[in-house]
């Protein structure tokens, strides 16, 4: 059965909240104006929207740090934890509190977000020793925004709900810059009341949110989006290299693409630095390859053939073996260059 889905753009968010709700997390200044405009029609008298409760954040990498930072800047009471403790320091300077384990964060907060690297780390932080589940209890919520497969998400969800707490999966579309700008797209599934409860927080960190039904649907949507993105990047890389080889200026190709039907922000954003063989990391190549691996398993589970993705995955694997795992995923072009070089010899 197709998942029931609904989308809420940010400006519509305050209308979801009962007028009586008094939440303690003030929205960013830019959002207060939108909230105030809506509050006059929804009956909210104070012109602001607040979240009631303390917010935990586990995992302060490229994505987690700016997301937590936006919550703090919006006035939320945020407690952080990261495996490498030093990454907490910039957040502590902004006013965050620190707890020494995921369990202690979850126990001291009403809602805890997790933004971890992969299925293994997401499961470990949620369900392992001193993991978040050990600090959860009825009335609390756990929101996993990492990109994982549906089976891992379900496993995490079962452990979380066994404590009496609620679980929402909410992977994000959008990279480092949208995370910094509070413009992510949340692909949520799981407990719908938790979804409604954390909506004001999602609206601080993102520009839109989809509720997709049962746990697993958010993970699946995210993997489908990222498998398209990973294949697009490979195709774009092939185009850049071919244009150069036949004597065209690849910068002109980037410009031509930007004006036509296949225009995409990703090409305009990454193209100019790819031409210069520079790959400043926004989305690490190792995570893109992880997502292709998970998308291939998802396709296999329903006997769907995705040969383009399978071919793209091999190139990302080759790029990893060239030592490019921590570079931006656009560095996959280097695997194509290496292939061309070895076939010339
Ligand atoms: N970067 C992007 O553009 C986007 C990424 N994503 C997804 O978001 C997630 C995070 O991505 P991103 O922030 O880029 O990744 P990073 O690699 O920058 O951060 C990964 C985080 O996971 C933590 N971590 C890794 N392994 C463990 C472990 N075994 N135990 C505890 N913590 C661990 C890291 O801790 P430590 O600091 O100690 O290493 C760090 O906090 C991934 O699932 C990714 O696919 C989704 C959308 C966009
Ligand atoms: O998972 C990473 C997604 C990156 C993006 O959407 O730009």
TrEMBL record:
<dbReference type="InterPro" id="IPR015815">
    <property type="entry name" value="HIBADH-related"/>
</dbReference>
<feature type="active site">
    <location>
        <position position="222"/>
    </location>
</feature>
<dbReference type="InterPro" id="IPR002204">
    <property type="entry name" value="3-OH-isobutyrate_DH-rel_CS"/>
</dbReference>
<dbReference type="InterPro" id="IPR029154">
    <property type="entry name" value="HIBADH-like_NADP-bd"/>
</dbReference>
<dbReference type="InterPro" id="IPR013328">
    <property type="entry name" value="6PGD_dom2"/>
</dbReference>
<dbReference type="InterPro" id="IPR036291">
    <property type="entry name" value="NAD(P)-bd_dom_sf"/>
</dbReference>
<protein>
    <recommendedName>
        <fullName>Glyoxylate/succinic semialdehyde reductase 2, chloroplastic</fullName>
    </recommendedName>
</protein>
<dbReference type="InterPro" id="IPR006115">
    <property type="entry name" value="6PGDH_NADP-bd"/>
</dbReference>
<dbReference type="Pfam" id="PF14833">
    <property type="entry name" value="NAD_binding_11"/>
</dbReference>
<keyword id="KW-0346">Stress response</keyword>
<feature type="domain" description="6-phosphogluconate dehydrogenase NADP-binding">
    <location>
        <begin position="54"/>
        <end position="213"/>
    </location>
</feature>
<dbReference type="GO" id="GO:0030267">
    <property type="term" value="F:glyoxylate reductase (NADPH) activity"/>
</dbReference>
<comment type="similarity">
    <text>Belongs to the HIBADH-related family. NP60 subfamily.</text>
</comment>
<keyword id="KW-0560">Oxidoreductase</keyword>
<dbReference type="Pfam" id="PF03446">
    <property type="entry name" value="NAD_binding_2"/>
</dbReference>
<keyword id="KW-0520">NAD</keyword>
<dbReference type="GO" id="GO:0005737">
    <property type="term" value="C:cytoplasm"/>
</dbReference>
<feature type="domain" description="3-hydroxyisobutyrate dehydrogenase-like NAD-binding">
    <location>
        <begin position="216"/>
        <end position="335"/>
    </location>
</feature>
<keyword id="KW-0521">NADP</keyword>
<comment type="function">
    <text>Catalyzes the NADPH-dependent reduction of glyoxylate to glycolate as well as succinic semialdehyde (SSA) to gamma-hydroxybutyrate in vitro. May function in redox homeostasis and play a role in oxidative stress tolerance by detoxifying glyoxylate and SSA generated in glycolate metabolism and GABA metabolism, respectively.</text>
</comment>
<dbReference type="InterPro" id="IPR051265">
    <property type="entry name" value="HIBADH-related_NP60_sf"/>
</dbReference>
<dbReference type="InterPro" id="IPR008927">
    <property type="entry name" value="6-PGluconate_DH-like_C_sf"/>
</dbReference>
């Amino acid at each position: 059965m197709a998942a029931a889905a609904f989308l809420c753009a940010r400006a519509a968010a305050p209308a979801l909240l009962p007028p009586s709700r008094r939440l303690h997390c003030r929205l960013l200044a830019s959002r207060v104006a939108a909230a105030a405009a809506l509050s006059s029609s929804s009956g909210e008298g104070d012109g602001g929207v607040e979240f009631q409760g303390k917010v935990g954040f586990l995992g302060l990498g490229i994505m987690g740090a700016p997301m937590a930072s936006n919550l703090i800047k919006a006035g939320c009471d945020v407690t952080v934890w990261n495996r490498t403790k030093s990454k907490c320091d910039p957040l502590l300077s902004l006013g965050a509190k620190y707890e020494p384990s995921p369990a202690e964060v979850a126990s001291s907060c009403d809602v805890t977000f997790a933004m971890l690297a992969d299925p293994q780390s997401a499961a470990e932080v949620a369900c392992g020793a001193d993991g978040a589940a050990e600090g959860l209890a009825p009335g609390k919520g756990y929101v996993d925004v990492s990109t994982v497969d549906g089976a891992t998400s379900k496993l995490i969800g079962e452990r979380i709900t066994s404590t009496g707490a609620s679980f929402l999966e909410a992977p994000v579309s959008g990279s480092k810059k949208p995370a910094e700008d509070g413009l992510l797209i949340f692909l949520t599934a799981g407990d719908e009341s938790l979804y409604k409860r954390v909506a004001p927080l999602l609206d601080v960190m993102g520009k839109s949110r989809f509720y997709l039904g049962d746990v697993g649907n958010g993970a699946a949507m995210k993997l489908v989006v990222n498998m398209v993105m990973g294949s697009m990047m490979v195709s774009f890389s092939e185009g850049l290299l071919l244009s150069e080889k036949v004597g065209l200026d690849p910068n002109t190709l980037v410009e031509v693409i930007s004006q036509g039907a296949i225009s995409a922000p990703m090409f305009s954003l990454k193209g100019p630095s790819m031409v210069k063989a520079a790959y400043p990391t926004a989305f690490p190549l190792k995570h893109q390859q992880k997502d292709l691996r998970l998308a291939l398993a998802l396709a296999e589970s329903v006997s769907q053939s995705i040969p383009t993705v399978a071919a793209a995955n091999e190139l990302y694997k080759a790029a990893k073996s060239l030592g490019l795992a921590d570079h931006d995923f656009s560095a996959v072009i280097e695997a194509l260059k290496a292939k061309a070089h070895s076939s010339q010899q």
